[in-house]
Backbone:
């Protein structure tokens, strides 16, 4: 799940300064769960923009806005409303926003900040547990990621800043290394804790990421 | 000899070593570093220069260490993983050797959140354990991390830190063992105020045989005021100041004098703990007190080897 938060409405208004009319796009996948770009949020945004004197030519909550072909198809289906808009306000993640970018040459505006790949603890409560490093090390750490869940991302922790199992940077956050140690102990695999983990290969997570599957016979 | 540094010589000779910390200025004045160095040069065997400690920008450790080396002092260059990747770290080590620096202390670094540029991006390309490994590899195998050959020697005496008080207490010795295995020649610890707890940790260190493989220098931070003691108790994670220490200072007529007495008592107790090979004095912003403390603790003159 891609976790997003809504930008302040004043910031959105500033983005739309040059646009008289706008087309709104929400996403029924992640942004709906984050309550930043589902049906209710898009309807609320429409009302607020209209109250500010903007013309909303149309609005759609698509399934996976990041799916570029799908987003382009939706635009073709809504040609009239899309063509009438000066610009597009995208109420989902940065990937969705750039998917819209591929579907139009007009200005595209983000309504959200994209935070992280998150786990859902419960509705409205999300935590980052994987940071997409491209070289998964979970096997070595009791399936608890030090790269993501330790604030220094160290592979040989804990640092001196662990405090009653919490992180010195934030009492609300668990020290990943305390979790890792306890888990390895439960599994009888403390030998993994004693091992010195060597430097990580960051090349695999060089930006921009690209994966192309080769089909058989190609 | 791994590096030929004065610190290594003193420790090799089995003498009780003293290192002292110098905080570099928040600017480009070499005179500030030199005058602090001049004031305490007789009081210790080697001198740590912090590397943007608590994530506050200061003169780089490399330059300040080079100034001290030029004065004939033995600097310990502190190096953090927070602000540089493996390319910069290895490159700085080569530069340090060229400028006469012979000791390095490998740390991960305080989080950026606590400093004066909290919106900066932390690097943490490698961690302190891997930094220790890197220096050892460059020194002993003459190879960079990538496997390519280092031209010439990298004679660096490798230091690391450990916090005997960070919890969980039970596995701090395991982590120390890893640092020693990675290549730490000496260890400077977090400040010791709770001597019995430190002694228990040292007992485990010795049981694991680590006192024979590395040199543990106990961290000593002179307390200047009641406020400082309270601040360290409440806000510096990893520092444990027993309540009786704070109340002793609170009730003192002359807090500075009481603080010095307290520190001398700690030094005397720490000296008697088996396996402790020296002390590391961090008189943050109060460096000029170091000669008096060392004199009164009976640790002067420093050995000439």
Residues:
């Amino acid at each position: 799940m891609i976790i997003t938060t809504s930008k302040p409405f004043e910031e959105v208004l500033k983005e739309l300064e040059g646009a008289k009319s706008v087309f709104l796009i929400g996403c029924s996948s992640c942004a709906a769960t984050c309550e930043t770009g589902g049906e209710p949020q898009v309807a609320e945004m429409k009302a607020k923009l209209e109250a500010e004197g903007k013309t909303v030519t149309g609005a759609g909550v698509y399934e996976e806005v990041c799916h570029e072909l799908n987003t382009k198809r939706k635009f073709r289906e809504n040609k009239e409303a899309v063509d009438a808009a000066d610009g597009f306000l995208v109420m989902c993640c940065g990937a969705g926003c750039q998917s819209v970018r591929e579907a139009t040459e007009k200005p595209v505006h983000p309504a959200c900040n994209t935070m992280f790949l998150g786990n859902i603890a419960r509705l409205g409560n999300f935590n980052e547990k994987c940071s997409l490093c491209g070289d998964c090390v979970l096997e070595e750490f009791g399936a608890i990621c030090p790269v993501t869940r330790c604030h220094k991302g160290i592979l040989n922790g804990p640092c001196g800043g662990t405090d009653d199992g919490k992180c010195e940077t934030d009492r609300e956050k668990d020290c990943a290394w305390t979790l890792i140690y306890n888990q390895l102990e439960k599994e009888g695999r403390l030998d993994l804790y004693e091992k010195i983990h060597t430097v990580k290969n960051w090349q695999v997570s060089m930006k921009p990421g690209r994966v192309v599957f080769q089909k058989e016979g190609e | 000899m791994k590096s030929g540094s004065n610190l290594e010589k003193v420790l090799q000779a089995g003498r009780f070593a003293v290192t002292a910390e110098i905080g570099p200025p928040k600017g480009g004045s070499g005179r500030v570093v030199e005058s602090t160095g001049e004031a305490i040069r007789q009081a210790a065997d080697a001198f740590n220069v912090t590397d943007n400690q608590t994530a506050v920008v200061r003169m780089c450790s490399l330059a300040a260490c080079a100034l001290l080396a030029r004065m004939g002092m033995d600097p310990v260059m502190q190096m953090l993983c927070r602000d540089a990747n493996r390319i910069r770290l290895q490159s700085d080590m080569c530069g340090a050797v060229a400028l006469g620096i012979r000791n390095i202390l490998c740390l991960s670094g305080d989080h950026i959140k606590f400093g004066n540029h909290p919106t900066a991006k932390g690097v943490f390309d490698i961690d302190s354990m891997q930094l220790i490994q890197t220096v050892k590899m460059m020194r002993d195998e003459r190879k960079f991390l990538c496997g390519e050959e280092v031209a010439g020697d990298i004679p660096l005496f490798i230091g690391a830190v450990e916090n005997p008080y960070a919890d969980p207490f039970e596995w701090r010795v395991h982590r120390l063992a890893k640092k020693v295995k990675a290549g730490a020649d000496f260890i400077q610890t977090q400040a010791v105020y709770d001597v019995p707890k430190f002694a228990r940790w040292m007992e485990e260190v010795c049981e694991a045989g680590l006192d024979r493989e590395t040199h543990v220098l106990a961290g000593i931070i002179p307390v200047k005021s009641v406020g400082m003691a309270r601040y360290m108790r409440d806000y510096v994670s990893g520092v444990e100041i027993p309540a009786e220490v704070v109340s002793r200072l609170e009730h003192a007529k002359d807090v500075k004098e009481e603080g010095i007495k307290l520190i001398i008592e700690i030094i005397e107790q720490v000296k008697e703990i088996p396996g402790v090979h020296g002390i590391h004095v961090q008189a943050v912003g109060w460096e000029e007190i170091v000669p008096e403390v060392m004199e009164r603790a009976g640790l002067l003159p420093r050995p000439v080897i």
Summary: Chain A has a mean pLDDT of 96. Chain A has two domains: 2-115, 129-205.
